[in-house]
């Protein structure tokens, strides 16, 4: 599949406290792959096998790579491994965006990685501003930095009106992971 199929690639931000950011980005990837676009999702701060990792094995042109441990990151004192994995993930993101190989690059939870200091705001701004025009770049995660929101083309905030965790329904395989 020839890359560069998008005439105009934009920057989308999916943020907010409500449920649906990662799954919405997966939907974007699915739609793009279905139209012959090459999609890469890089998941920051995640290391467990989510359903989407299994599913995309069956979807041509859709890859997911993870850069995190299967542990919560301590915001005040991230482990050296958390920092190193985020660094490697961000390097991969820069390579992928610049490679010409992908039409859509999704940086899942990158907004949180910036909020936790695992990815620098300036380096993310540089990536956004230097992005080739044909690449669709999607940035997910709570607390998207105002500067990132400013440079993005589309910013969507998921609003937490209610969530079933509050009524004691725990995370379910196939729904939450
Ligand atoms: P999803 O992966 O379901 O699209 P998300 O990407 O919007 O959710 P995150 O902020 O990345 O959500 O949070 C990760 C986990 O927390 C997911 O299991 C998600 O279902 C859950 N979650 C999301 N929003 C809320 C909320 N408002 N209250 C409690 N848990 C939530
Ligand atoms: Mg998410």
Explain how this protein is built.
By secondary structure, the protein is of the alpha/beta class. 34% of the residues lie in helices and 18% in strands. It has a six-stranded parallel β-sheet with strand order 3-2-4-5-1-6, with helices on both faces. The structure holds adenosine-5'-triphosphate (ATP) and magnesium ion (MG). Magnesium ion binds at residues 21-22, 109, 140.
Q: What is this entry, summarized?
A:
The chain contains six helices and six strands; from the N terminus they run βαβαβαβααβαβ. It has 177 residues and is α/β, with parallel strands linked by helices. Strands 3-2-4-5-1-6 form a six-stranded parallel β-sheet, with helices on both faces.
Low-confidence stretches: none
Task: Please state the average pLDDT score.
Answer: 96
CATH topology (fold) name = Rossmann fold
CATH class: Alpha Beta
How does the overall form come out from the CA principal axes? globular
Distance between the amino and carboxyl termini: 30 Å
Number of domains: 1
Q: How much of the polypeptide forms β-strand, as a percent range?
A: 15-25%
Q: What ions, cofactors and ligands are bound?
A: adenosine-5'-triphosphate, magnesium ion
The largest β sheet comes out as: 6 strands, parallel
Helix content: 25-40%
Q: Gyration radius, to the nearest Å?
A: 16 Å
Overall structural class, as computed from helix and strand content, comes to alpha/beta
The name of the CATH architecture is 3-Layer(aba) Sandwich
- The CATH superfamily turns out to be P-loop containing nucleotide triphosphate hydrolases
- Write down how many β-strands occur, each being a DSSP E stretch of 2 or more residues: 6
- Kindly report the spatial arrangement of strands forming the biggest sheet: 3-2-4-5-1-6
Compute the number of helices. Answer: 6
| N to C succession of SSEs | EHEHEHEHHEHE
């Amino acid at each position: 599949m020839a890359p560069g199929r998008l005439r105009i690639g934009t920057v989308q931000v999916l943020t907010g406290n409500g449920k649906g950011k990662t799954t919405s980005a997966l939907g974007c990837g699915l739609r793009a792959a279905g139209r012959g676009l090459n999609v890469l999702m890089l998941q920051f701060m995640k290391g467990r096998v989510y359903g989407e990792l299994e599913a995309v094995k069956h979807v041509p042109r859709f890859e997911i790579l993870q850069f995190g441990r299967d542990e919560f990151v301590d915001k005040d004192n991230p482990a050296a491994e958390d920092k190193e994995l985020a660094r490697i993930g961000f390097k991969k993101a820069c390579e992928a965006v610049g490679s010409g190989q992908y039409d859509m690059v999704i940086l899942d939870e990158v907004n949180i990685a910036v909020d936790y200091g695992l990815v620098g705001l300036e380096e993310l701004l540089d990536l956004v501003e230097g992005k080739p025009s044909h690449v669709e770049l999607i940035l997910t995660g709570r607390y998207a930095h105002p500067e990132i929101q400013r440079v993005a083309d589309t910013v969507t905030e998921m609003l937490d009106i209610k969530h079933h965790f509050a009524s004691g329904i725990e995370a379910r395989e196939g729904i939450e992971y």
